[in-house]
Amino acid sequence: MHNYQDHSQKFFYELWKTGNRILCQGKLLIGSENHKFIASIVLITIPTVLYYVFMAPVLKYQYLGIVIIFIILNCLVYIFITITVLMDPGIIPKITTNYEMDEQLILIPQKYLKVDPQVLFESKTLQTRGHQFKLKFCNTCAIYRPPRASHCPACDNCVLRFDHHCPWIGACVGRRNYIYFYLFIFFLSATMIYVFSTCLAYIFGDMSDDKDKGEQIISTLSRNPYSLALAIYCFIFSFFVVGLWGFHTFLVITNMTTNEYLKKHWVIQSKNPFRRKNIFKNIQHVLACIREVKFLELRQYVYDPKSYNQPITQNQINENEIENLNVVCDNQNNVARRLSKQTNDHMEEQ
User: Fold this and answer.
1) Phi, psi at residue 129, to the nearest 5°?
2) Pairing mode of beta strands 171-173, 131-135
3) Cα separations (Å) of 51 from 68, 113, 198, 216?
4) Which residues, other chains included, contact 226 with Cβ-Cβ below 8 Å and sequence gap of 6+?
5) What residues contact residue 282 under an 8 Å CB cut-off, 6+ apart?
6) Using CA atoms, how far apart are residues 257 and 244, in angstroms rounded to an integer?
7) Separation between Cα atoms, residue 51 and residue 61, nearest integer Å
8) DSSP-derived secondary structure for 54-95
9) Distance from the CA of 11 to the CA of which of 83, 99, 275, 280 falls in 20 to 30 A?
10) What is the distance between the alpha carbons of residues 26 and 318, in angstroms, rounded to a whole number?
11) Where are the alpha helices (DSSP H) in the chain?
């Protein structure tokens, strides 16, 4: 018969230690630096609001389709950035003594488990396409990381096919959410180019040859100066965003990660062992929606060691007997001291 409390079972997210934020009782997982995500949303929303307020009313009477296309692109940007932040990037949970998924294992007193440290740090190797990988042991998570996985210090998690910790959204980008991150920067690039083009078309589009062009541009800007401000804003930021999309497109067609590119992992004769035979297979492999590859279950029931009254072993019995004997001796000494003091006091009174 098991001797444990009824409330010993808890949800995994209640005992899991991570840098990520967990919301709605384990139903939502977001990044570790949410202020960066909010800042990115603000940078996207400001030109969006200006376009809706000052450009859309002017364009909808002449080119309604331009406004509709902008609305579609804008919605896709918000959708994919939200999915990227809220989706598990491929986190491999830590192995700690804070929880246990097997009820039988939790009954073993941790104090008397004998594990040879050499077993934990024994060399583990894996061979893939002629390459021999030495699986690295993560001291923080207490696991052997699979190939291409890495530990993110910001989120304090090991992530499958770790690409990078994005400084603009404050979350990790890995195997499970990379496709949504790629689509986010793609549609954001398309939106910026689209806004820049439509603003220039509005400024220079309705010029007539019989009037001075400079005066026509000044007249247009005087009616709607925000068109020039939006064009400049998108022109400046598009250098970074479009450049980032181009860089990740290069990584997709070569089947590399940002982490591997920066650390120059495959600067060897045999090149990248994960690269497919052609570009299309690389694209299919990298941008595939991987939903079944998931190790993190925040609402899975686990067992809390603190909630269990573990069975007493013979070693514990011996230790308890010694402790009890010491307590008895101390009590006897205290009683003798009190009696001696009372006797002395009584003698003094007499």
Assistant:
1) 50, 50
2) unpaired
3) 12, 65, 10, 22
4) 50, 53, 54, 55
5) 252, 253, 254, 255, 275, 276
6) 13
7) 15
8) IIHHHHTTT-HHHHHHHHHHHHHHHHHHHHHHHS---EE---
9) 83
10) 43
11) 12-15, 34-50, 56-59, 64-86, 103-106, 117-120, 178-204, 213-223, 226-254, 258-263, 279-286, 314-349
**Catalytic option among 138, 152, 166, 172:** 166
Domains in the chain: boundaries: 9-303, 308-341
Nearest to 36 by CA among 152, 156, 151, 171: 171
Question: pLDDT of the chain along its 350 residues, tens only?
Answer: 444 444 567 788 887 888 888 888 888 888 888 899 999 999 999 999 999 988 888 887 777 888 999 999 999 999 999 999 999 898 988 877 666 665 555 555 544 444 444 444 555 766 666 667 777 888 888 888 888 889 999 898 999 999 999 999 999 999 999 999 999 999 999 999 999 998 888 777 665 555 666 666 676 666 767 788 888 899 999 999 999 999 999 999 988 899 888 887 766 555 777 778 788 888 888 887 666 677 888 888 777 666 655 544 444 445 555 555 554 455 555 545 554 555 444 434 44
158 is catalytic: no
